[in-house]
Amino acid sequence: MKHFSNFNQLATLELAHIKDGRKLLPDDLSIIENASIVFDESTILWVGKTDDLPEMYSTAEITDFSDHCIVPEIVDSHTHAVFGGDRSSEYNLRLNGADYQEIARRGGGILSSMNSTRSLSADQLEQLAITRIERIRSFGVGTIEIKSGYGLDFESELKLSIVIDRLRVKFAPQVQIIRTFMAAHAIPPEFKNSEAYLTSVVIPLLIELARRKLIDQVDIFHEDGYFTSADVTLLAREAKKLSLPIKTHADEFNDNDGAALAASLNALSADHLLKISNKGIDALANSKTVGTLLPGTGLFLGKPQAPARELLDRGVKVALASDYNPGSCHFDNLLLLASIIAPQFKMNQAELWSAITLNSAHALGLTQQGALLPGLRPRFTIFKAPSLSSITYNWGKNMYAFQ
Ligand SMILES: [Zn+2]
């Protein structure tokens, strides 16, 4: 049993938790000043003011955290962190005025990541990813979701899922890695249409990976030119048979009722949502499906952002994630991203912190974390900082202290 004591501020997110992460007001952070937390290996036992510590916890091993703050663990619920190659030249071309077609003509785009990823061994991909995960962790992120999806054939996607599982084992329990199967990321050049790829590669591999218990959830790129609504429905049906939850990349380039479809399929989350319709917003607001926004992509590509304020005001459970990937968002610092985008999205502090802790945990089905309350798991992030507001105020200054 451990007792971490004397935090300047401890944000339990108790009210945010009660409100299921929706329509949050600043006080929903539920901050306790001069606070302590008592926990054992698996469970939070007590939180409160250090002066109010119950006698029964006085024997717990104590660590002093004066001048520190503690929040529920930061969760990055959307990354594509396992890939080969480097697309900096593509970024350069874009800055210098090249459009999407020209980049593709010069060998850029997802197919360049596919070729690099296919050419590397599992060991090589693992080594690259270890460095990336250590960096993400250095900013205070404790749970990281990682998608496969740059292999785009049976063998390469199998290799990626094995790598992600190896990373899960290697980093547990300090970093919790959630393994997402996303062979349905794009249609590889070997196939003419999405349905053929789905039925001959994606679904057979899904069944194999589920049998080997190598994946936690299933994702698909639901977009014109990628995968159709019928594909999403088919994949969701297969995932359901295997008791695996789904999530989707929805309404990014076009509104194709992606959010509404995700909600109707009980998806854990619908991600991107730049072009989400009114109907889509209503569907998310009335469902358990988290709306995950990935503003790093808009910043990286110089594109518009999702209608965040509208989603928040209408009761969608909104999460923020990095979308860390080699092409459209080579940006891995979620807390910095949230700090940068909050003024533009007009998010209050409770919305900001919930979006990267409580709501992003729920976007991965992790309902036993995301708030610092007795009975939940002791997953938290500690900063050497006088207050929560000083953390989001100091853009890019890494104040992460301990996990
Ligand atoms: Zn993505």
If you had to describe this structure to a student in words, what would you say it looks like?
This protein has 403 residues and is an alpha/beta fold. It is built from 16 helices and 15 strands. The chain has helices spanning 14-18, 88-95, 100-105, 110-119, 122-138, 154-171, 194-211, 229-241, 258-264, 278-285, 295-301, 308-313, 334-345, 349-356, 358-362, 388-393; strands spanning 2-11, 31-39, 44-49, 61-64, 69-72, 74-76, 141-147, 176-184, 217-221, 246-250, 269-272, 290-293, 318-320, 380-383, 400-402. The strands form 2 sheets. The protein has an 8-stranded parallel β-sheet. Strands 1, 2, 3, 4, 5, 14 and 15 form a 7-stranded mixed β-sheet that branches. α10 (278-285) links the parallel β11 (269-272) and β12. α7 (194-211) packs parallel to α8 (229-241) and α9 (258-264) packs parallel to α10 (278-285). It is globular, with a radius of gyration of 21 Å. The two termini are 16 Å apart. The mean pLDDT is 97.
